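User: My instructor asked us to take a sequence, write out its structure as tokens, and then describe one feature of it. I'm not sure where to start. Here is the sequence I was given:
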Amino acid sequence: MLRNAVRVAAAIAALSALTAITVAEAGAPVGGSGVADASVRSSGWTADPPVPVGKVGFGVDIVGVTDGSMPTIDVGAVRLRDDATRWSKIEPRQDEYDWSTLDKLVDGARSKGLPVLYTMGQTPLWANPDGVHCRYKEPCTIEPPDDLRDWDDYVRRVATRYKGRIEAYELWNEATHPGFYGGTVEQMVEMARRAYQIIKSVDPSALVISPSATMLHRAQTRTWMSRFASLGGYSYADRVAVHLYEDGTDDVIGWPERAEAMVATARSVLAAHGVDKPIWDTETTEEPEPEPPFPGTAREAADWVTRYYLMGLYNRLGRSYYYGWGDANLGLRLQDAGEPPTPAGRAVTQLVGWLKGASIRFCGHGTADGLPPEMWQCGFVYASGEYALIRWTAQGSVSYPAGPTAYEAERIGEAPRPVRPGQSLQITGTPVIIRHR
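Assistant: Let's start with the prediction itself. The structure tokens for your sequence are:
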């Protein structure tokens, strides 16, 4: 253990020195912001000590799968919502429960060692017959139940049945979206309060995740979150859930990096109300519904999904769940259930392999962090004493020195290649890991 600690300390020092050297070689300002223009603000950060990168942070939503099948690509967690596990499917008639699908999926996830995040809702129509109908085929509504004791009973039964088997409970899907929730903020706070207390009384070790907020670029989302916070809603959650969908632009290629602004928005709203809790992105894909085919190439699809997970690390999110896995109708598909992985799915496995045993030391991008405007990077250290940089661009490409201690580079979708001391590499939208020793 002491030997590993010494190696990691040496790797941290070497990685810090390397960053200054490569920036200087490229002719950019050394370290930190290093930019005279005060309007250029750094979003980069350094972790001291470095934070271990767990595979559990690389999650997927299970979509359209009901038989318990699970990914064979290397992911670390699953979310259950769009798979016939909604409240309206589990309790189609009052006090008549059908656990068959949820049992299969929870058992399937546990057999693969995948922690389960279960999303609660939608309300069955019997619990609010006059409510606005939901977007699903079964009788359900976007409204809260007329009698919250029905909600209490559902929450208690789920938490009791899956005690110790479901790791986390998300209290509602996209409560800021009018297509998924039609009640008031006050009603959602009360539902969150009741659910939190019930879950913790039944299974104290379970995590409770807030109702998710989506479309953070919209003023009404920020207003909803602010109101929910002011009423104490986030006190009934261990984690805050967001969905990093659409920022008001139509450009798909290059989108993952724009999540930075949305996460910053969420943190700003939370901070204004004194809420300081880890954030999970429990659902995001390259394009909101309806799902068109991904407009790019197979290479660009692999780039997109790996950059999505890298931006989760950059934004210091506790979890990132890509939407989704299993359904052949998805736009950017990782793997259809029972089929081999797509190039994008193989890219996820490759990225997770890169980061096995790694701890993240820092992330930064652009001139504010002494880099070319279009370049992003994160630095990692390993117990072996080696260290690595992962670099990519949102759009375009740039030539940048690998550094004097680099010995190998590996791009997503490609095999490792040796690197000469002082060699420059072309940094593109395909993430590349540069290994040093």
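For the description part of your assignment, you could build on this observation: The radius of gyration is 22 Å. Try explaining in your own words what that tells you about the chain.
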